[in-house]
Amino acid sequence: MDREKVDLTGAPETMLATLYGRALDSRAAKSILHDSAAADAVARIEYDFRKTGVNAATAAGIAMRAKHLDNWTSGFLQENPTATVLHLACGLDTRAHRLAPGDGVRWIDVDYPDVVALRQRLLPTPSGDYRVVASSVTDAAWLEEVPADRPTVVVFEGLTMYLTGQEVQSLVERVVGRFARGELLFDVYGTTGIRLQKLVPAVRNAGATLRWGLDDPHAIERWGVRLVEDLRSLDLPEIADLPAASRIPLRVMAKLPGFRDVGRILRYRFPALSQPEQN
Ligand SMILES: C[S@@+](CC[C@H](N)C(=O)[O-])C[C@H]1O[C@@H](n2cnc3c(N)ncnc32)[C@H](O)[C@@H]1O
Question: Which portions of this protein are annotated as coiled-coil regions (predicted)?
């Protein structure tokens, strides 16, 4: 089999770490995500995946995060079977393949042009109303091409930390301003995670820089969204079912000062019609 030589750096290179995490999880005795397409893609890439530093525990963390975002996305599609899905910073994630949305769904994957080109070489095109857009998500033009005729769920995993706060705010405000209603589903680092970024091998070895962190998920409701779910990455219920070798490091991290809030998975709705929920 001819393998693809991958020569990316910075944030695009980090998609190999999340891909590898899903691949490792798919081979675990009790896989969380069952993403065998990730393992197939890893086998076709010529890259030293040890650079990612991903191990069984971090792979489980990656798979749990993806699973929650999958569940929220499919929940939205059950309620809105003719929705638009914008899957931003898709990397080599097979979310559209995993969820196999119905024919009524318009699905758009977005990432940088070199990532999209690799994606098209490595992954089968999902069936249905699917397309991929090669653009930075911070560029306003691509969004103006997306028809604003349907409820829209915007899902982005492993993206916000690579953007500035201003870029995240502009993105959220552009989405909220364009579509009548929908949801935004994404993960964030806390500011402690941003400060300790050099401890994350995938980020350090790719030469990527983490920028934006969020400690209070209610703080961004002023951008026109309403928080409806807030999960701490280190408190996810699935952690209890992991083998000890993965569970214990995650439990230890959760006890270290400042680490409990190192990452979150967030679900917001717009328009933010009702009063923001109080903590
Ligand atoms: C950690 S990876 C996550 C990839 C994928 N979501 C996953 O979970 O496997 C970060 C991704 O963000 C993408 N990215 C970072 N900044 C971006 C931007 N401004 N526009 C589009 N994609 C961006 C990178 O190219 C890369 O695919």
Answer: none
Match 């749990």 to its residue by tokens.
Answer: 64
Extract the tokens encoding 46.
């010529």
Residue-wise pLDDT tens digits, 13-38: 999 999 999 999 999 999 999 999 99
Within-domain flag for 75: yes
Q: Helix 10-27 crosses helix 56-79 at what angle (to 10 degrees)?
A: 90
Best residue among 90, 111, 115, 160 to mutate for probing ligand 1's pocket (most ligand atoms within 8 Å of CB) is 111
CA of 26 to the centre of ligand 1 (A): 21
Q: 216 is in which domain, residue-wise?
A: 66-270
24 inside domain:
no
In a domain, 4, yes or no: no
Q: What is the number of other CB atoms lying within 10 angstroms of the CB of residue 120? A: 12
In a domain, 160, yes or no: yes
